[in-house]
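Input sequence (114 aa), recorded before submission:
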Amino acid sequence: MDYDVVLHIDSGEESRFRLVARNCKNYMNALPEEKFELVVLANAAAVTLFTGHDELRELAEPLMASGVRFKICANALAEHNIDPVSLWPGCLVVPAGLAEIVKLQRSGYAYIKP
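Predicted structure, token format:
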């Protein structure tokens, strides 16, 4: 069975990020013996959460260390005048968030918007 999942965040509210981080932890804890990939895709105002916000970065670091990939939309970064260099270490920039979601779904990822 395939357990790959993409969690989508488009809100700049810190509480939404915390919810996504909890969902990641809960998902990983529920499947201790399974192999899977977990992606968090951020676009729209959510990209503003991935620069600075030390408390949120501290939540994300152990997730990244466990293999969660954080993908950030380049279009949204440009819209919010954010230089990709200022993103947390480990974040991956993708050209377009929506296109990345479709790509992941087509390759078997389940899509969830918490």
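Checked by second reader. The chain has four helices and five strands.
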